[in-house]
Amino acid sequence: MTTTDHTAPGGHTSRNSTLSTEEQLALAVEFRVPIPHGPAGGHGEVVVRREATGDGWAVTDGALTGVRAWIEGEGWRPVWDIGRAAAYQHNREQALTLAHKVAGIEAANHQTLLAIAAGPLAHARARQFTITCPRCHTPGAEEYGEPIRNTDDFADCARCRSCGLEWALDPGADACCTTCGGSGTPGAGPGRRRTADGWGPAPTCHCHQLYEEPGH
Length: 216
What we know:
The chain is of the alpha+beta class. The protein has helices spanning about 20-25, 80, 85, 90-120, 120-130, and strands spanning about 5, 15, 30-35, 45-50, 55-60, 70, 75-80, 140-145, 155-160, 165-170, 190-195, 200.
């Protein structure tokens, strides 16, 4: 229990163990917002954390390592990727409001996954029809054809209905892979990355070439 000292009118110092609600909130470094009807365990809540070296707050997935923060318009992003300034950009009230919004989104995503799993031939249907966004992990991405310049052909692509991420689908990857979203590259990132020797190919997702569609 935290105690405070104050001086009484007679000049005597007494100890008061009662803190106001705001004083108690000022001492908090973490808040947990349950996901309604969500999964049990660590992923069943959204965790609001205060930065250890500042006053900023972040909406996180609660992971102990590889923590991700929720960014409006983008969804879950690794803190190491976006930087601590972007992750801890909120004050306490803003972060708590956003956390409740994210909990609602995650609850809807969880119910969608349950509905898919409960359907007949769920495994086959998921592999054929359900694409999960590799960035925010929202299931049910929209598949569409992107016109290829100077041709009459189209490239198979997907668009996340939640965070808006768009990516090309690789026929050599599993379209239901939650790591790459069927792009063949983890996170549906660019196909090439900068290295010490210049530019080189990006890492290939583990599902690449492990999933074969009929006729391939």
